[in-house]
Amino acid sequence: MRFVDSHTHIYLRGSEDVEAMSAAGVEGVVVCSYFPVKPTGPSTLIDLHRWLTEVEPERLKKYGILTLVAVGIHPRSIPSTGVGEVLDHISSLFESGKASALGEVGLETAGSEEEKILIRQIDLAKSYGLPMIFHTPRQNKAQVFDRLLKLIEGQKVDMTKVIIDHLSAGLVVRARELNANVGITVQSGKMSEQDVVSIISSAGAEGIMVNSDLSNQPSDPLTLPKVAKTLIDAGINKEDVLKVTYSNAKKILKF
Ligand SMILES: [Zn+2]
Question: What is the pTM of this model?
Answer without folding.
Answer: 0.96
